[in-house]
Write a structure and sequence with these properties.
This protein is an alpha+beta fold. The protein has helices at residues 26-37, 50-66, 72-91, 117-128, 175-189, 234-247, 266-284, 289-301, 342-349, 359-368, 376-401, 407-430, and strands at residues 134-140, 148-156, 159-167, 197-201, 211-215, 223-224, 227-228, 310-312, 321-324, 327-331, 338-340.
Amino acid sequence: MEISFLLKIPAYSTGLSDCNIIPMDPKRAYHVLIKLYGKPGPDSIMKPTSEQILSAVCDEIALVARNSEADHQGALTQIGPLLEWIIANEMGEVEPDQVIGLRDAPVTEAAAVHLDIESVTQYLRDRFDDPKAEATSVSQIVGGFSKRTTRVACHYLGDTHSLVLRQAVGVSKDPVLEAEYSVVCHAWSEGLPAPEPLWIEPSKNLLGGPFFVTRFVTGFNPGDVFGADEAVAGTVGEDLATFLARLHRVNCANLNQHPSSPMSTIDQILQEIDLALQKLTEATGEPDAMVSDIFSWLRTNAPVPPEEPVLIHGDVGFHNLLVENEKVTVVLDWERAHPGDPAEDLAYLKPTLQGVLPWNDFLAHYESAGGIAPSSQTLGFYTVWQDVWRYVACQVHLSAYVNTPRLSSLFVGRIFGPRFLADAARNINTL
């Protein structure tokens, strides 16, 4: 079945007055625009606004979309810093050194800090019954749409600690957060490079919504959801291969909680496909013929899963790693973990390895560490599936923008969503 796809880029450079845009820091914007477009002329605007940056970014995307020979991945990765900083600025996220392409930019204060030193200090004193407990710094970490992640430097019970709080916002209970904590505990106990779990607050508390706490791990983020930075060493790819091989040997029979639905039987796989279509229909209405064909292809080509399902991370990639000295120090964000087929993780990661490690070399390291290489049919199915569920997630974000005008929802729906859909169609055509 051949599915043709034309990438359509709306004219974002007009009609932005209703987007609730928060102005960027001009020095930061100028720094990134120089990296992207080169030194501006004497008549250029030296302090670009968010709207001007959005216009430049969308013009660049439209130019790529019209050129069938263009390096789509390279171009979108190149403009990623601009998009990520605007999103981070809107969401009140700090730690700007974590944003790709902005690590050398001057540090500024965040637009808004959700947790403050005073409230965290009071929480620590109450929790540990320690009147001398104190938070010395509280800062939001860039990244993620579904959870808020905050770094806290503090001391309590006579020791100094560097912590990370992963928090659900706007709810009093969050079963997904609790299940994610359970998986992190399980992975840590198996010796995997997961964050060290410390404790969980499963319900609403002094700091707001439920959260769990892990030990802070040093390192930098080496890429985004589309791939790695240019300077990432091949040893990082080898580390990833070893990590996945070890993860895919973990017995998850005793893991009663997992944050994402299992895909360990053919019925469960088909159920997830149907659920994704249902979510898409609720968000956008009846799908067009091309999208319907993609979902039909998924149902027709769903593979038989292995007899013994293994633990799947579900979102493993360079956007969810920290790296130090060319080695992976920790794998983050386990909220899509579930029992399933190892091919799911491998298919998700494969497109992002370009420039880091050739796929055959990656598979060789994976197998030498105990992993089993998937069949081409199974890998092909999960390659398309990864694009489809991410496209659906983007459309759900976009539909939410109508009621809650967050710029991040507009971006993922209008810019990332079409790319995932295009990749799904393109991958089907090449199988």
